[in-house]
Sequence to fold (327 residues):
Amino acid sequence: MRRVLILWILITACILYSPRGESYPRTSPSSLPSLPPLTPSAIRACPVTVPNGRNPPDPIRVGPPIPQRHGTGILWTDNTKIVPHPEQWNPDGSLDWKMGWDRGIRGRLEVTGRRLDAPAPPAIGHFDIPGYGELGMQIGSIHFPSEGCWELIAQIVGSHGRASSRVVVLVVRLPFELQDTVWLPSDLPLDLKDVEVEDLPNAVRRVYGPVTKERERMWWGRDGVWSREGEWVEAPVFFWSYGELVVETARRSWSGGPPNPSGPVQRTAVHGRPARCIRSLQEDAAALIWEEGTFRYRILQWGLKLSCADLLRIAEGSSTPASGGKR
Fold:
């Protein structure tokens, strides 16, 4: 009996351990503990970097300038709130997010990150894609092991010096689909200003605002901003103007967010569902509200001179003539 017991122990050891002495997991990957979720309190406490609207100068800028960009004068990026579509997440809860950085000095770009609100493996940037050169735009991807509040450090090390930039981004996995804007008035310079997720899991708000573009001068040479010989060039800078358009998706049992205006109620329909539009008589404010299933939707404007017909067109792209923002 003792010999049988010893033989059983040896067989078990051979099964559990490889020839190099490494143990094989006895559980499937799906049963392993997952990383901590992003809590509502962590969302509210995350010190997300607010984009300063600064864009790279024309010599290295690729594509049109955007208001959500954040720049230091040497490095520029955007996407400080990352809210992917549900299909973009990996089965293990990680995310591979495409991201671009503009470099103001020559060198190789490296991006790493750490989660601030909970323990997690580091975020790893993959920016070794050939074809972008050593100066200007570099597009790659960042692997986030999970959602969360993430600090990203971008560094450039080259023959002309070293530079770094720190941004804090919020990576959020949404629990439901969001109402989109089907139409926006062409005579209003509206752009996406923010995605408010502080009321998750009950509500998410896309906030649009009018923007103004100005120019700032900066020194630029053949090898970037630190070149001795060069010239003064202009770079776009954006500022948010007065007024907002809020597109909200919420569960029925929600609280928070900007209040509805008080005034006459106009009955209408959105996607064939009963809806009401409230327009204030005392101030420039209006709200379109409707429900579908277990969700409630609201499009709220203030300071933009948009009518109920405009809000309806934003919701469903109706061909109904709208004022386009002029009153």
User: Anything to note?
Assistant: The chain has three helices and 17 strands. Residues 175-327 form one domain. Residues 10 and 267 are 79 Å apart (CA to CA).
